[in-house]
Amino acid sequence: MDETETQVKHGNYQNYYQFRAEDSRSGILRECLQTLWNENNQNQERDTTNTKVHMIDIGCNSGRFTAKVREILEQVCNGALVKAVGIDIDERLCDRARTEFPEIEFFKGNILSIAHQQTTRGQAEDPIEQCMKRLGIERFDVICCFSVLMYIHLNGGDDGLRSVLDYLCEKGKFLILELQAWKKYQDQVRRLKRDAGQMYPLYAELEWRGRGGVLEDHIKAYVASKGFQMVSESAEKNEFDRQLTFFKKI
Description:
Shape: globular
Mean pLDDT: 88
Strand content: 15-25%
């Protein structure tokens, strides 16, 4: 499989931020997080200047939005120090991110393989678990997963997606998920066939599917079944017709 085929199949586009530059996600994210912070602390005056928040961005690409989310979290959390890390399937993107954002740790890893390995062979080869040990944490305070779950679902099927959601729920206290609608799945299947002459072999077997929010409801219900409460979802979708959904561990 050549470079173009790999990028189309997994979404690790080298020039992603050239066609998805500073879009409305930042504003939507800041508004939702600020509202949640205000609601949770409305009767308290908290000094968080000595607080450390650990965040991981799953599928970070070249790190530009990882850095933006880190900035937003620090602003929303009254100046708390946000320790951010990012993981991506593409080592070249991680190299680029390390160069541009040296204050953030980036490392290579395939979240679908990591989640599968945890259920079959333990955590010995888990770079996220190794990172958590270095940081001295049992869970990340915030896990972000922007526009990645569709690729996991198409490549790993329903079982693969569930294993990744299981993994994220185990490793995080607060999840920010950007879900893609079923129409986007259909567009992506056509794109892979057009640009690479390939099909996603598990696509026809997917049971989690459907327009009008049906697909998204499957994902939300599954995360809720893992002990998480959906505390907010953005009132608007961004220009790419995607919505941010926020969950916290109960």
